[in-house]
Request: fold
Amino acid sequence: MTDRFDPAAAEKRWQETWAERGTFEADSASPKPKTYVLEMFPYPSGRIHMGHVRNYTMGDVLARYKRMKGFEVLHPMGWDAFGMPAENAAMERKVHPGGWTWDNIKTMRAQLKTLGFALDWSRELATCDPAYYGHEQALFLDMLEAGLVTRKESEVNWDPVDMTVLANEQVIDGKGWRSGADVERKKLSQWFLKITDFADDLLEGLGSLDKWPDKVRLMQENWIGKSVGMQFRFQLAEPLDGQSDVEVFTTRPDTIFGASFVAVSADHPLALAVARHDGAAGAFIKECKAGGTTAAELETQEKKGYDTGLKAVHPLDPDWHLPVYIANFVLMDYGTGAVFGVPGHDQRDYEFASKYHLPINRVVAASIEQAGDPVGDEADATGGVAVNSRFLDGLETEAAKAEIVRRAESEGWGTGKTVYRLRDWGVSRQRYWGTPIPIIHCEKCGPVGVPKDQLPVTLPEDVSFDIPGNPLDRHPTWGHVDCPKCGGEARRETDTLDTFVDSSWYFIRFASQPDGQPFDKAEAEAWLPVGQYIGGVEHAILHLLYARFWTRALQRMGKLDIAEPFEGLFTQGMVTHETYRSLDGRWLNPAEIGVGEDGDLIELATRTAVTRGRVEKMSKSKKNTVDPEPIVAEHGADAVRWFMLSDSPPERDLEWSTGGIEGASRFVHRAWKLARQPAGNDGEDKAIARKRHQTVKAVGEAVEALQFNKAIAALYEFVAALEKSASSSDRDEAIGTLIRLIAPMAPHLAEEAHALRGGDGLVADAEWPSYDPAMLVEDEVTMVVQVNGKLRDKMVVPRGTSREDAEKMALSREKISELLDGPPRKVIVVPDRLVNIVA
Ligand code: ANZ
Ligand code: ZN
Reply:
């Protein structure tokens, strides 16, 4: 063994040892308690980045710690391998998406392996592998059979550049999330998963997820968007083309006497009927559709309406007629696509009424006495009591709502109703690189599921990407099949599944991967739910909601008796770095930068000055990425892992710095130096023994709470104390403990040190050290001695020294007796803290 720890040699050796021994292969039949640690699996984009390293290091520390705590740990890794980037690469570089993807997987797998993660590689999977997606197709067919899949002709968000349908979530400010192109509306027949069937379950379930960040639960809650209210009909004074009423949804039925108008969406059947008779209405509808149609856009657009001339009859007063408008702020796919407007108490309605000179009346006030107060220059959306509302007057808002619903239901013109913002999940994508939807379209039989014994429906290899659109559509033979039902000529579905489907059940397949079926129920249930899931907050809504939905769908189908897939969720911060630009404004990569003669940064290629920019998330566009591979080669995996955990709390951003990685590297060598010290004498060192117990407690608690930076800080302190201490048997023992405590973070160093000191087996298999609570407390304390409130002396006394003893000791101290002329007037003692003598 050399003096210096040689990461390059040692790390490879231990990685091989772990692999040979199958150390991290999870045994489903183990009698030990099981736990499942999972990080969100990566998209194989090419190479791993620092964000991956940080994410997987955190999960790895937890997984290794849990092993040492006696758990059978499942900690798997795989690839979220379908998706657009592979097709883009195919278009740009004339390569096959499959070849590109598998090459990337190979590179990234090798890179991950150099980091020494305690992963069960025997369970590795890639979603683009027919051995995976064939099971997904089977599950899709099961869902179809269970009535959880529907086909709907629906207006979709169409990305004209990527030539694909986008989910609402993938439209950001009216633009495609990936291409940035203006999204258009288009009608297409699409497959949908009925996530709305589970809206209430998914909402309720959030309540049980107490190991999830509050912010994520809140985002999901808002996304599901439950609104409790009432649905009712306004009769039209004159029917139009057979339509005699308009149904509206409201969350404020108590404001019904404040109604000034009725408004319908531009897509509403009544609007279309009006347009058939009125060209100007048609033009207005067209104008509405040109604007964005997402909720966020409707919110910010100027409110505009078109008076149809129709009149709606107030349900509680046949003589009260309200104008009916077509309005740009009413969404067709929310509620009923029609509303009644109450300008006094809804800001949107207020703006609309101001523009079109409609009445703005008060029907809610803080008290009945304030019924006459005019509405100010804004709507008053707060609750209170109903006023100017006939039989409702004086009722509190909630009571008034209940009263109207009761009346409407008993009189038969309306019903209490709950609506959700959540929409069914459109999963059809007009793309090649995804899971083929296992459906055959027959003119006679309609859509027919591919018989399960014919799964997987695999992607054809011979495709071209030289023109936009879906290559499956134009493949000469792949789409032509016989109908499984009637045997007639039929056509294969050419859409593929949204890649979020692939990631909605991969964690189940990790837990159990038998041949011939997606998973074994009992085996999957033995591991699930995932105890700790770790990933980016960018998945707070979609991925996590879809995975929760799949789990519940499987539960309803009797395939897996788990309600929530992820018991604990942790969203880690990003890895950031300074940005740099050349004199002419080009972004520069840190590797292109050096230090000039006068100490300033220069661009190496041109030797011209470099300006430092802000610290930002590492990204290719800003060129501020640091490639993990050369860093690992230079400093070793342990140092990189150590740095990823230090400095910042894991939920915050971590700024990459050369100083940081060098500091981590120095620490590794300091720990190594300690490990190499020869065994000490038999002498005792109580202070070191105490520090050992304290550190075991601190590190264990910090890791359990995922406060890795605190664990690291405690270990730094421990090492510093050991470095200062003289040789003793306590010190010896403490060094042994140190090696175990750093094993989750710096596993290679720990194995090397463990072996060097003649430890049994692998440190990865060793038991986590325990501590004695009695050994935690210091047995001596320093008490402050004051005279008339002024600090005069300090004295070291046994912890728990009584008031009387402390007083005696203080008075007998030389410094103190010098200050006193006679017996003190009064002595105040705070045990273990201070003695104040009033002279
Ligand atoms: C009358 C009323 C009076 C309303 C009032 C609000 C305040 P949330 O909470 O988001 O569910 N609304 C209903 N359907 C709509 C649609 N398709 N497009 C746009 N707006 C719609 O909001 C429900 C409220 O939003 C409903 O209650 C309705 O306006 C409006 F003082 O009805 B309200
Ligand atoms: Zn048929």
Remarks:
- The pocket of ANZ (ligand 1) is lined by residues 227, 249-252, 255, 329-331, 334-335, 337, 339-340, 342, 345-346 (CB under 6 Å).
- The chain has 25 helices and 37 strands.
- The longest strand covers residues 226-240.
